[in-house]
Amino acid sequence: MTKIEVNGRAHELRADPATPLLYVLRNELNLNGAKFGCGMGQCGACTVQLDGKPVFSCVTPLAACAGRKVRTVEGLGSAARPGKLQAAFIEHQAAQCGYCIAGMIVRAQALLDKVPHPTDEQIRRHMEPNLCRCGTHHRILAAIRAAAGEPA
Amino acid sequence: MRLRTLAAAGTAFVAVVLGGLYAWTRPEAIAPAAGPQRPPSPAVLAAGARVVALGDCMVCHTAPDGPAYAGGLGLKTPFGIIYSTNITPDPETGIGRWTSAAFRRALREGVARDGHLLYPAFPYIHYTRMSDEDIELAYAWLMSRPPVRVKQPDNDLAFPLNFRPLLAFWNALYLRPGDGAAPGTGQVERGRYLVDTLGHCASCHSGMNVLGGERSPAFQGGTVDGWHAPALTRLAQGSAPWTRAELADYLQGGLALAHGAAKGPMRPVTERLAGVPRADVEAMAAYLMTIQQPAAAAAVPAAAHTGTPGAALFAAACAGCHAPAAPMMRLGGRPGLDRSSAVLGDDPSNFIQTVLHGIPWERPAPGGAAAAYMPPFADVLSDAQVAELAAWVRSGAGRPAWPGVAAASAKQRKEMQP
């Protein structure tokens, strides 16, 4: 049994400790926000927060999450009541196909939690590991700036 | 009373002696260059660019994301932080007022144009044996670069190390000035010159003694920025011996398919070598093969066991790329971890560094280092888990577990995380 906390709720999981966290979130806990993209920690579609730090959940062993706090895009708000950053992504229509967006939002939130008013350079550097294949990066940056209270 | 007088007299005496030594040892300033130099021919510039690439000047004299050759990289030494200098031809903050004689003296003797002694983080104990011709070529090329006006931070060294005249004693111990003669001919002699003199490989691969001098005999391995620079005399032994061709590939491409990718401080070295003629890296490889020592006793293979915590971590975190059946292995032709130098070595530093920090994504240099990327695991794995993973990967390579991995991981995490 592996004990983890996801979005503030405690879970005891029977899954093999060798299972990547992404599969546990999607298949056991029905949290389908984080996506399987490359499976090699190269695209960021699977990004979640582990103790507040953005990690690639596709290469994060469940064994490494024991006793730790996981936060996914579902923990930031809901479709009915989106969080501030999620609302900014909607307002700026940052999603094209949307596959990368959950990872983008979770990574951006980790920055805003640490640096409430980041510079453009800080945002670009921080977001570098996450790829958007549709090319909506300008809108993603605008949404993050807006959520940080900066001119978009 | 008498004691105090004696003490005062003693202090005054020491001060006078030190002051006298300082005046005696301080070299003369060399008059500034009169004006802009005549632009050299394209042939001279091309040859100069090759010398500067082989000398790896850019690796230290460029700050992260800073303009090329404008300095500002903080070199962490056991004695404090030394910031590399601006070697663009800006007259105020660079070497724009340096004549070729001043440049030659800096490389030969470690003395700046105005006469102050340079710190040996600048590898003049190796450059001193450069040929006069190569020094002229490097000078001509550097002076043709765009000048950048930037004042770099002051060095952060504790007293008395910030008192430069003391370097005269260090130089008496370690500097054997060269005579400017051209290097010997033939491939191995060319390689010796490129490895020992221009490439100054010993600066990292020999390790430092307590005085900051290079350990002797050379190339027995050292530590730089938390990475292990492996011994260069034991490359051809063990279960995955390097061949001459693999060494040349690695030096120029940053990747030897049978041994792994260049990481840490070695990566920018291979990026610079990407631009030199193939004959140069082949000469380096040929010389390196001549300094190989016979194998020591074979390592005792450890029995691999499944079901360990390390095996579970590997399955989730690493197998997607590093398992034998992974696409990167089958289609990309990447080496198995059981052949990786970072896994087979006696020092766990490079394994730990790679696991914690990954290999950052960088645009491959044109014609050079193949793209090598690995995600970082510092925020995923605990130090104990890094140790479990290390034990598992080592057992797969038939090697006993390294001792003290968890403690070393904790130390590296502290040093490298901003």
TrEMBL record, chain A:
The keyword NAD does not apply. Pfam families: Fer2, Fer2_2. The lineage of its organism: Bacteria, Pseudomonadati, Pseudomonadota, Betaproteobacteria, Burkholderiales. InterPro entries: 2Fe-2S-bd (IPR002888), 2Fe-2S-bd_dom_sf (IPR036884), 2Fe-2S_ferredoxin-like_sf (IPR036010), 2Fe-2S_ferredoxin-type (IPR001041), 2Fe2S_fd_BS (IPR006058), Beta-grasp_dom_sf (IPR012675), Diverse_Oxidoreductases (IPR051452). It comes from the Bacteria. This is 2Fe-2S iron-sulfur cluster binding domain-containing protein. GO terms for molecular function: 2 iron, 2 sulfur cluster binding; metal ion binding; oxidoreductase activity. Residues 1-76 form the 2Fe-2S ferredoxin-type domain. Signal peptide: none annotated. Keywords: 2Fe-2S, Iron, Iron-sulfur, Metal-binding, Oxidoreductase. Gene3D superfamilies: 3.10.20.30, [2Fe-2S]-binding domain.
